[in-house]
Request: fold
Amino acid sequence: MKFIVDKFLPSKRLYVIGRHSVLYKTSNIVNNLNIRERIRIGDYCHIRGELLLFGHDGQIEVGNYCYVGLNTFIWSAKNIIIGNRVLISHNCNIFDNDTHPLDPVERHRQFVEIITSGHPKKIEIPSAEVNIADDVLIAANSTILKGVQIGQGAIIGAGSVVTKSVPPFTIVAGNPATVIGVVDRAAHEIESI
Reply:
């Protein structure tokens, strides 16, 4: 198993990480704001993917007992909240913003600034908070877009593009994702370890 336990002194890292959490060699934590408290990872998490804050704003909060799969990208320019016991499979994208301006001139200016001096400190990108409640499963190759709220115990099917909020204990799939089933609530009682 290839992983590293974060051994940096708290004053040296630009994120807060909980007890017994693991950052694997494939993980990448990019805090362009340089404000440590803006990226928080709870206890007993395993992170294989990337958590990134834009240079002008952003915040990511990951609850306890969460998994972020390989090649998964969680990029924030506003606020992404991930509850407890959330499993995010590999090759997923979670964005609380459009990532680039819609105007081609502004988009090019952003690109040039990123490659020459880093993420812009001032930029207008449409953004809206993403909130993923406890006990959610996001299957491989799924994308969650800005403004989406995913209710407790919901399941996002593989390859889905989620453009609208998902009610608790529902199963959605497709592009755009639509409800295809429900989760048996009786079988969904989770005990804390």
